[in-house]
Amino acid sequence: MADGALSEVLDTHKKTIVHIPNVNSKESTLVGKLEEVQRIYDLIGTWLRRDEDSNLDIVLTDDGRELKIANLVNDDKNYRDKLARYLSDKARDDIDAVDIIIALGMAKEGFDWPYCEHALTIGYRSSLTEIVQIIGRCTRDSYNKTHAQFTNLIVQPNGTNDDITVSTNNMLKAITVSLLMEQVLAPNFTFKPRPKEPREAKPGEIFVKGLKKASTEKIKKVLDSDLEDLTAAVLQSDQMQKLAAKGVTGEAVKQVQSKIIRERHPDMSDEEVEITRQYLAANIAMKTAVIKKDAEGNDKFIKIANKFVKIDELDINLIDSVNPFHHAFEVISKRVGANTFKLIQDTIAGSRIDMKVEDALALVPQIKAFVVANNGKFPSLHTDDANEKHLAQVQAFLTAQRAKWEREK
Questions:
Q1: What CATH code is assigned to 3-155?
Q2: CATH 3.40.50.300 in the chain, residues?
Q3: Cys staple from 26: which of 106, 155, 260, 292, with CB 3.0 to 4.6 Å?
Q4: What is the pTM of this model?
Q5: Which of 357, 356, 358, 354 is nearest to 390 (CA)?
């Protein structure tokens, strides 16, 4: 746990819950949980005293404020019981009852503090349910806030760290969680094929050129009840994350999306899968896009696939070119430096594509189409074009599988 990183994001003017890292995590300083708490106190200011009635610690900030801090990391039963009773009796109704809560596990659930403005978690949490519970601490409605924030501090991978793969995977998982949270918190849209007779879109309705109509009850049921779960499954797919890290979009991503739909709904026909996939792609693209309003406050333009287009000119081909991880990678690349970012991408993507033979065979028509379109030239592993490189990797994978089969005959 780097003091510099923590001091950048810990705003002592906000009601905050800090979750310290598990002692076995990469973010832990390995000095013990009580010492971790003391280091946070030192960042905040100077410890003055412990209130005997509540067991709150009173810490003086550099600008002269006395903050009431609840240390839920201390697991001494007598100490903990008195503090828990105080928080249960006071924190829910009295905004001045406590300023900062430091926890390891207890504050994740069964604890009510509506005044909380910031949930600051140090270290990657593997459970999405746990993260939702933590975020729930700061998203309660209260008169003292118009903004709530969740911050997750994780270890930055570097070239000298033997555990770089673990650190990078944790970073990618944290990115995935942030995308999932965007999906949860973003407004819901209703996607419709662009009508032949022009009409004004209803609030929340978006017309997409080339989008196929949800033509069967089976499709409509999936779109109504399973679209968000399908979205989460795509974003959490290892194969999708590797493609995103390489910048691959188009057919390879469509294949992953279709595969996930088939796994969850094996009774769907190929046509039903493709129609559902289009709505799934639109849902992911729109919720990770940036919408620009005009002078009257109407949604007019959207930044999607790294370009601005009019919302009423959206088409399914543009949507299929979206990399939902693009913005997150863009932010990271600006903050961690070129070498580290390349290391992150390389580690995520891996040197060889991970896929099943049947998935690779499904892309053979794309390889053939590429060869025809390029006058007999096969896709190259050394191209700058991400889609061509992916096809080349698939071709190499199939060649290796063929050689293996020949050897084992």
A1: 3.40.50.300
A2: 3-155
A3: 155
A4: 0.52
A5: 354
